[in-house]
Design a protein that fits this description.
Strand 2 (160-166) and strand 3 form a beta hairpin. A five-stranded mixed sheet has the order 3-2-1-4-5, sandwiched between helices. Helices cover 46% and strands 7% of the residues. Residues 1-16 have low confidence and may be disordered. It is built from 16 helices and five strands. It folds into three domains: 5-60; 72-126; 145-357, Nucleotidyltransferase, domain 5 (2-Layer Sandwich), CATH 3.30.420.10. It is globular and about 60 Å long. It has helices at residues 20-29, 34-45, 51-60, 72-83, 92-101, 109-119, 121-126, 184-198, 214-223, 246-272, 283-290, 292-304, 324-329, 347-357, 368-378, 390-407, and strands at residues 145-151, 160-166, 172-178, 204-207, 237-239. It starts with 19 loop residues before the first helix and ends with a helix. By secondary structure, the chain is an alpha/beta fold. Pfam families: rva_4. This is Integrase core domain-containing protein. Residues 136-270 form the Integrase core domain.
Length: 409
């Protein structure tokens, strides 16, 4: 039962005992061990239980680590389903994670590896290339440095992505898909939302010199103005080349291997078949309404159960490894400390910042004029049945393109 990307761990807040069982199931299905679950419940949700009590609750939920492996037929069926989509680009470890924690199967990594060798030998060969040795990255703890950047590979199809990652834990702090990642007011909104959720300020924000980061720069400096450490005020924002923004570039690389190649190839095929129009003035409005719901739902689940739960390092001496949520919320377990700085502004002040400096993504994924035109065609958009998969979304996209071409919108 994976939680939405923006409401994992402490972001869920102290929500009381009513959701204790769902939280336990959530953390168990994400692969956390017993002591880790007890620690997260206590520190992040104010739910205090013993390890012995947790084991009894897991028995009630019929959740067990060591149980008989699922039937080979079921495992093969799910692998084939994954290989039809973005799963064709992932290795056996991430495939094993999806089988166990997304589909609820019981399968070992060795079984997953052997079945992939049988079912998809060509894909295994393609993924067997050697890795490049990466630069050494050092970060003393969570919220010391957060890295923000945009991802432009889907821009030709009307999809602009923006994300942020914590440098120490590699935990995703936000990931947004919209019509633009160059609008500084949109990026500022993502930043303020993160500040409001965390109720603190990161010590350093790392970004490139694009115009989209100008407002975030000013907000970060303002929120750090009254602090007295050596990284306060102007020193709290670090500019650098996008290609040298190592942490988030690593995340984009994982994203490309995991699922983005699938989406890029899918959209290229659709362009070839004239399903997607890439040169019209309303292209992103059509995308925003027809594709964003399905894209965000499927893609967010893939990311949360892929990038945000895997943090591994081949060089144990230079970079710590572990599960991002644990590294972010319980840094003491990794001999680190949280570097989050105090927030000297109230929620009312943050709301005022939002009014002056921020802009939100359109409610329906498209401009108001386009939403009004759609309302005249289909009625109340809140009652409109959105597509549940990519095939339905592409079908809706094609239909909308035909309608608005005839109307000459």
């Amino acid at each position: 039962m994976p939680a939405p990307l923006e409401y994992t761990a402490a972001d869920l807040g102290a929500i009381g005992r009513g959701l204790r069982m769902p939280l336990i199931e959530h953390y168990f299905m994400q692969g956390f061990q017993g002591q880790e679950i007890v620690a997260l419940l206590g520190l992040c949700h104010n739910i205090s239980i013993s390890l012995r009590h947790l084991k009894r609750l897991l028995q009630q939920l019929n959740l067990r680590r060591r149980r008989q492996e699922s039937p080979v037929e079921d495992i093969a069926q799910v692998i084939l389903r994954e290989l039809e989509g973005s799963g064709r680009n992932i290795g056996y470890r991430l495939m094993w994670h999806r089988l166990n924690y997304i589909y609820g199967l019981r399968v070992t990594q060795d079984t997953t590896r052997r079945m992939l060798n049988i079912i998809d030998p060509d894909g295994v060969s393609r993924r067997s290339a050697h890795r490049l040795q990466r630069r050494v990255y050092m970060c003393p703890g969570p919220n010391h440095t957060i890295h923000i950047d945009g991802y432009d590979k889907l821009k030709p199809f009307g999809i602009a992505i923006h994300g942020a990652v914590d440098g120490f834990s590699r935990r995703l702090l936000w990931l947004k898909a919209g019509h633009s990642n160059n609008n500084p007011r949109l990026v500022a909104k993502y930043y303020i939302d993160f500040i409001r959720r965390s109720q603190g300020v990161p010590k350093i924000v790392r970004a490139d010199r694009g115009t989209e980061n100008t407002i975030v720069h000013r907000l970060q400096v303002a929120l750090r103005w009254h602090h007295e450490d050596g990284r306060a005020k102007e020193n709290s924002f670090l500019y650098g080349r996008s290609t040298a923004n190592q942490r988030i570039e690593c995340m984009w690389s994982q994203l490309r291997r995991m699922s983005m190649n699938y989406w890029i190839n899918l959209f290229k095929i659709c362009v070839t078949k004239v399903y997607l129009i890439t040169a019209t003035r309303y292209k992103w409005n059509v995308y925003g309404f027809a594709l964003s719901h399905s894209f965000k739902r499927i893609w967010t689940a893939l990311l949360f159960n892929g990038i945000s739960t895997v943090s591994d390092s081949k060089d144990k001496m230079s970079v710590l490894s572990g599960k991002p949520d644990l590294m972010y919320y319980i840094p003491e377990a990794f001999e680190a400390t949280d570097h989050k700085m105090s927030l000297d502004y109230s929620n009312e002040d943050l709301t005022q910042f939002e009014r002056e400096y921020c802009e939100t993504l359109p409610r329906y994924g498209c401009h108001d004029f386009f939403a009004n035109a759609l309302t005249e065609l289909v009625g109340d958009l809140d009652q409109f049945e959105m597509p549940e998969n990519v095939t339905e979304a592409i079908g809706l996209y094609v239909a909308l393109n035909e309608i608005f071409e005839e109307l000459e919108v």
